[in-house]
Amino acid sequence: MSGVPNLGDGGCRPVGLELRDVVRPSDVEAVGELVRATGVFAPYEVDVAVELVQERLARGVASGYWFVFAEGDGRMAGYACYGPIACTVGSFDLYWIAVRPNLQGLGIGRWLLGEVEARAGRDGGRRMYVETSSRGAYDATRRFYEKHGYVQEAFLADFYAPGDGKVIYSRALGGAGDAIRDV
Amino acid sequence: MSGVPNLGDGGCRPVGLELRDVVRPSDVEAVGELVRATGVFAPYEVDVAVELVQERLARGVASGYWFVFAEGDGRMAGYACYGPIACTVGSFDLYWIAVRPNLQGLGIGRWLLGEVEARAGRDGGRRMYVETSSRGAYDATRRFYEKHGYVQEAFLADFYAPGDGKVIYSRALGGAGDAIRDV
């Protein structure tokens, strides 16, 4: 448990939760279970979420997949996966953020987002990008980002599938752009 | 050597060249040498080009990195790397295309692009995406795509670095969108 205080602008740490950024083999199953439990993601998307954990365990920090886990009583309440984008100076991507369904609405997602932004900024991040779907099922997701300072930068129609476009959001971070350019 | 006829709209096969889509261990060094020789790419970008070949050798077609090599007398004249984008139905990405400097202007790039588009279309590809830099050094690259039917879909200012934005182009392919959704 690193349990560092919240340095982002995303709000307070929810009561009873701690933050961990060390990735363990048991996270493979725990992340799969959590992402599946949200009910939002298709099986192949759950597979991708799990693969990012496996890739991180296999290649370490150099994988480019960095994690923060929110835990209470040793159980995962939510997590986020982010990292520096290869071949860029200070651009980061938020690959994944998910909160256990029965714990949503308590500010855990906001806390994780703030943590990720603060940590990326300390690591030289100038800008955080996040990509999501234009489908109605992701309305709440898009509102979540818009509420927390993310601005739509692009819309790629039919990117995910016919009628399912990709929306790219970004938000400025505090970093100086001195993150390593390729990890 | 597959040496298949050109099925794209990218023009004829340049005299004396054959196409190969099987990836060999010797391609790791050959791709690095070719990409380096273009003089356009920074060392960390050359590393990424090489890593895609290594990833393909390690994980096969499931890596999502598919290749076509243009060869004459057993020497690589140019190559392209493309593949289906995970979690999409029929969207493909052209990750890399490069032609040996002393062989540029002979239609090799156009031939490779047409081959990649035709092959992606046969594999269910609906749309090909390509990302490039907004910097002046990439003016010719952007003109190349625009000349071959690519339309700018998005511009992300300062994406690669301050003053170095990302331009996203796309072009419709003939595929029906029945490509495997996640490889």
For this structure, the quaternary state is homodimer
Q: What helical percentage do the residues of chain A reach?
A: 25-40%
Q: Tell me how many strands of chain A there are.
A: 7
Roughly how many Å is the radius of gyration of chain A? 16 Å
Largest interface, by Cβ-Cβ below 8 angstroms: which chains and how many residues each? A-B, 28 and 28 residues
- The CATH topology name of the domain at 18-129 in chain A reads Aminopeptidase
Largest sheet of chain A: 7 strands, mixed
How much of the residues of chain A is beta strand, in percent?
25-35%
Question: Can you give me a brief rundown of this structure?
Answer:
The structure is a homodimer of 183-residue chains. By secondary structure, chain A is of the alpha+beta class.
Name its key features.
disordered N terminus, 183 residues, alpha+beta, homodimer, Aminopeptidase, seven-stranded mixed sheet, globular
What secondary-structure arrangement, pairings included, does this model have?
The structure is a homodimer of 183-residue chains.
Chain A: E1 18-20, H1 26-38, H2 43-59, E2 66-72, E3 75-84, E4 91-99, H3 108-122, E5 127-133, H4 139-147, E6 151-161, E7 164-172
Parallel strand pairs in A: 4-5
Antiparallel strand pairs in A: 1-2, 2-3, 3-4, 5-7, 6-7
Helix pairs in contact in A: 1-2
